Fold Manganase accumulation protein MntS.
Amino acid sequence: MNELKRCLRVFSHSPFKVRLMLINMLCDMINTKPQQDNKPN
């Protein structure tokens, strides 16, 4: 939980561009996981 709090604190103090970059990285990670596990329809 401390890791999460630290990440949130850094995130809340980071500039907007950095937030967008982090969100994009997270979205990419989330989007690529199901594609590797599931076969495309």
About this structure: Residues 25 and 31 are 10 Å apart (CA to CA). DSSP finds two helices and no strands in the chain. The chain has a mean pLDDT of 80.
